[in-house]
Design a protein that fits this description.
alpha+beta; Ribosomal Protein L22, Chain A; three-stranded antiparallel sheet; 5 helices; 19% strand; L-aminoadipate-semialdehyde dehydrogenase-phosphopantetheinyl transferase; transferase
């Protein structure tokens, strides 16, 4: 049994009514009630996908029958397996997150783990507004002015992407230690490396500073 990293494209999941009802029956009543409180259908779908990922993980990795899996949450909201586990499974740790088009899961047999996902693309309408503004003023600005405006927008977009990466890193740490929103995120800093990521590659060079001190015991992927 080793590390688990799963990603499910819930944005592309289009369950019919029968499939949705079946999926809802596969989770606990309190989970179903919690999912039903989401205002938007896409959020409810992502939340349900996350719960199903956890149950699939436990059934496959710990060999606990699906209908016997019992999940609970800590007082800070972190999900955990309430079934009595003995021996090598007693420290099994997992976490889920969902945003945008994906629900993701991370699990470790012996280590604390937290995961957070954040869509780094700017909203489509925001990009459209920028482009619309540029096109409206294209007649009035020089070639140099156009280039400068484009550069400014690119800088803003990169800054927004970097900010979201830092937020996701901080949230993953808070979720791993299970302390909830009461933790002062200003205590955490990151030396992110590399700044440019390639799809399909896993990086583990990012380091965290807690209260100004480098934390070597934590690994950020």
């Amino acid at each position: 049994m080793g590390s688990v990293r799963w990603a499910f494209p819930c944005g592309a999941w289009r369950p019919c009514r029968r499939e949705w009802l079946l999926a809802a029956q596969l989770v606990q009543p309190e989970e179903k009630e919690r999912i039903g409180q989401f205002v938007f259908a896409r959020d409810a779908k992502a939340a349900l996908a996350g719960r199903l990922l956890m149950r699939k993980l436990i059934a496959e990795e710990l060999c606990i029958p699906w209908n016997e899996v019992h999940l609970q949450r800590t007082s800070k909201g972190k999900p955990f397996l309430a079934n009595n586990l003995l021996g090598i499974h007693s420290n099994y740790n997992f976490n889920v997150s969902h945003q945008g088009d994906y629900a993701v899961l991370a699990a470790e047999p012996e280590l604390q783990v937290g995961i957070d996902i954040m869509k780094t693309d700017l909203p489509g309408n925001a990009l459209w507004v920028h482009q619309d503004i540029l096109e409206c003023f294209v007649v009035q600005i020089t070639r140099t002015g156009w280039s400068l405006t484009t550069v400014i927008l690119n800088i803003r977009e990169k800054r927004e992407r970097r900010k979201k990466k830092w937020i996701a890193l901080k949230e993953s740490f808070v979720k791993a230690i299970g302390v909830g929103i009461g933790f002062n995120l200003q205590r955490i800093e990151f030396n992110v490396s590399p700044l440019q990521l390639e799809i399909g590659k896993v990086y583990k060079k990012t380091k965290m500073l807690l209260d100004g001190e480098k934390e070597e015991e934590w690994t950020f992927e």
